[in-house]
Design goal:
single chain, about 220 residues, alpha/beta, Rossmann fold, DNA polymerase, domain 1, 2 domains, six-stranded parallel β-sheet, two-stranded antiparallel ribbon
Length: about 220
Amino acid sequence: MLFDLDGTLLDTAPDMVGALNELRCHEGLAALPFETLRRHVSHGAARLVSVGFGLVEGAEFERLRLGFLDTYRARLASDTRPFDGMEEVLARFAADGLPWGIVTNKPAWLTDPLLAALGLDRRAGCVVSGDTLAERKPHPRPLLHAAQLLGLDPALCSYVGDAERDIQAGRAAGMRTAVAAFGYLGEDDDPWSWQPDTIVSHPAELLPWLGLAEAR
């Protein structure tokens, strides 16, 4: 089992939205509603800055983007936790000896300390970050690399994520795919149009989909 990170394995929205609103306040702007920003979290810093500051570009956009990243790094794991039910799923994987890993577009300088802070770096069988390879999702190579690190045929792997690029990457890698509907889908997203194998509304639904009984 391979997981996307933001909006799939971890609920990072409290810290990412918090960092953006902290930066807005520093810039003399009012905080934006959490739900307005939450659905953009999976699309990374550039999307959040665009949503949070509107039509800025060039040097000003880069200044705000770097400011957001510095602010986010300072509170990386303050309120971030696995989604409700995910710990039980990971515990079942451990009990059954099912290997799992992470494939994210988040850069390693943020991914690695975040996973370490939550103790997940010692549990994941592999971690492929957005700068591990030259390619990022929706390219399939990061997923194929993860399967190689786990010593598995990609056809034996499944990938779950909350964005269209996740499903595109998984399908291109020859893996089964699942959409995490509990993640950061936008109001206009139509996840069935992405052609996943399934859509799950709660992490526990991954267990029967993988042929496992409910968590013990």
